[in-house]
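Cytochrome c
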Amino acid sequence: MQKYILLIGVIGLLLSCKSQEKKSDEQSVTIGGKSTELSASELGKKLFNGKGKCYTCHKLDKKSIGPSVQAMMKIYNEQNGDIVAFLKQEADPIVDPETYTVMKTNFALLKTFSDKELEALEAYMYSVVE
């Protein structure tokens, strides 16, 4: 009987750990006073189009003031670059270095982003090219 109870406890513990892993990709976000769960790429999309105002200079599939998201992520993928490190100013630009001076003005805003927000932004940008 004790072994049976112990087995049920271990299974319950394993199942609860597994459900925790699923939620690690989701963020709880409050929108209009209502809390909702978003995947990293969904949160990244909201940041790209909202708080970050990235859409102002970066279009999804064509060059504008800055390179397109598809072009950026293709290069970051090919060169195994770290977009989060770049956004934190911890890595040099590898896409359109000549437009870097324009991008520099946005780093003050990016400093207000948490690591999770930057990672969500990266997840969204990669999801655009998948």
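thats it. DSSP finds seven helices and two strands in the chain. The longest helix spans residues 2-23. bye
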